[in-house]
Amino acid sequence: MIAYLEQQHFVHDTDHPSLPSLTLDGTIDYRSTVIKDFGGLHSTSPFAVIRPSSTHDISTVIHFASQSPTLTVTARGNGHSINGQSISTNNHGLLIDMKSLNLTVNDVVLSNNNNITVDLNGGALWEDVLKRCLMSYGFAPRSWTDYLGLTVGGTLSNGGVSGQTFRYGPQTSNVTELEVVTGNGETVVCSGEENSELFFAVLGGLGQFGIITRARVVVQPAPDMVRWIRVVYSEFDEFTHDAEWLITRPEGESFDYVEGFVFVNSDDPVNGWPSVVLDADQLPDPSVMTRSDNPVMYCLEVALHYSKENCSSTVDTRAKRLLERLRFMKDTLFKVDLSYIDFLLRVKEAEKQAKANGIWDAPHPWLNLFVSKSSISDFNHFVFKKILKDGIGGPMLVYPILRSRWDERTSVVLPDGDIFYIVALLRFTNPYQKTPCVRDLVAQNHEIVQVCVRNGLNFKLYLPHYNTKEGWKQHFGDRWPRFVEMKLRYDPLAILAPGQKIFTRNNIGE
Fold first, then answer.
1. Active-site residue flag, 179
2. Of 175, 416, 462, 509, which one has the greatest count of Cβ atoms within 10 A?
3. pLDDT digits (tens, 9 = 90+) for 133-158
4. Distance between CA atoms of 265 and 296, rounded to whole angstroms?
5. Rounded to the nearest 5 degrees, what angle is found at the Cα of 199, between the Cα atoms of 197 and 202?
6. CB-based burial of residue 197 (10 Å sphere; 0-12 exposed, 13-18 middle, 19+ buried)?
């Protein structure tokens, strides 16, 4: 189907002549449709939604937008942003639905540095990538996010972190080549060796320099099974000591996955002890909940991969050897065995339940930060134990990451130190229960950030959101001039990713 759109619909200024039409092999929907992202805090009605059938369509759309003084282009994956980053800012926006590019997993490639890779469309969902790679090759990407209903291009534009990051780095460290359509409308293949400047700028670049249409991602043989384990700590310093010890152990001498979270020391089914158990038959002894007077407790979550050929006693031995070195409350060990694919899709099951009770479609004022090891104890004191001591209606993730696993040539900004922590405050609001209003939750997020600033904590926002140029300058720090330079080179009219609110059309400046 050939789609056709007249650009003169956009031109309200009589000083500008009518512009040529846009013809695509994909489709164009210019009906007035209100679009929200996952955060549910912002909405907009773009002038048109573009569903491209090829990279050429995307290039054509950007060239088309460049002929107007006002048009912008937003690449939208699964719309999982929180603060409107994946929606157009006004009715002058063209929104590209990247999921319309059908998933293809090309033949496995052995690259020059002996990495095994597969080529993926930028609009492919990671959950579909997982299933296709396992079914076709028995391989899987080695670095994931916790939730896989996200697009390849979307996570590579931000970072992509999970419990495997301590070993393999974020998803941005596990891609060897990209195909990118820049803000100039040019289609460029880039890698660490070819067009490397664009390659590293786009990775973690928040969509500012180009739209990722293809990614060559590192994969490895996938395990069959996972031993999933959770243990509980009453003291934060013991929790962080053990987590940091695990992530600094050599491969083969630690778990394959390390995360952690904070929970309320109560029987609250959402925020308390019931959120720790992995099986309904594993409810803790009630006496455990009264053993500590701390308002919050800490759960270390780990996992071991194994094949079906490994007998259970071998896995038991590996797990026991590692757990014996840890200082958790010894009668708080919860475990379950499940398939590798079920483990990686564990949040998908939670999504089904949340959709059934209406929570998934309610607003999600999430806050994600990277906090330096030097500041994480203070964060626990000021935030977890005080501001959030009653919970947030969802997970409060906190776990360490090694800086050495990140390629600092990318656009991602990290806090100081060899070890830093991901803190993810994943709030869920329940439309059917009396809970704080969204405005109050957003205000609490601002309060948390301000507490970090006032107390001199070393941190950076992950999936950052600022409403002012000054905020973005402070976020990037001494890397801001380089970020602006890349914008001027690859998207000089500031056509791309207006929802990030970093640059405005035709006015990049410094």
1. no
2. 175
3. 998 889 999 999 999 999 999 999 99
4. 5
5. 105
6. middle
Nearest of 127, 122, 95, 74 to residue 26 by alpha carbon:
95
Confidence of residue 20 (pLDDT cuts 50, 70, 90): low
Please name the residue that has the structure tokens 């090759």. Answer: 137
Q: Is residue 204 a contact partner of residue 410, using CB atoms and an 8 Å limit?
A: yes
Distance (Å, whole) CA 304 – CA 319: 7
Distance CA 400, CA 409 (A): 21
Q: Work out whether the CA dihedral 104, 107, 110, 111 comes out positive or negative.
A: negative
The residue annotated as part of the active site, out of 16, 63, 119, 146, is 146
User: Strand pairing of 93-97 and 72-76?
Assistant: parallel
Enumerate residues 6+ apart whose C-beta is below 8 A from 239.
Answer: 233, 260, 298, 300
Q: Nearest-CA neighbor of 206 among 78, 85, 334, 61?
A: 85
Q: How far apart are CA 460 and CA 416, in angstroms?
A: 9
The model carries a pTM of 0.93
Residue 146 among the catalytic residues? yes
pLDDT, averaged across the chain: 90
Domains and CATH numbers, the chain: 3-100+489-500 (3.30.43.10), 109-221 (3.30.465.10), 225-461 (3.40.462.10)
> Given this model, what pLDDT does residue 422 score?
98
Catalytic residue among 177, 259, 301, 491: 259
Q: What is the DSSP string of 270-291?
A: TTSGGGT-SSGGGPPPHHHHTS
- b/e map 74-84, b = 16+ CB within 10 Å: bbbbbbbbbbb
Q: Is residue 11 very low, low, confident or very high in pLDDT (cuts 50, 70, 90)? A: very low
Q: How far is it between the farthest Cα atoms of the chain?
A: 78
| Known active-site residue 259 | yes
Of the residues 42, 80, 364, 465, only one is catalytic, namely 80
Backbone phi, psi, residue 238, to 5°: -70, -40
pLDDT digits (tens, 9 = 90+) for 284-322: 777 776 677 899 999 999 999 999 877 667 899 999 999
Strands 3-6 and 139-141, sheet pairing: unpaired
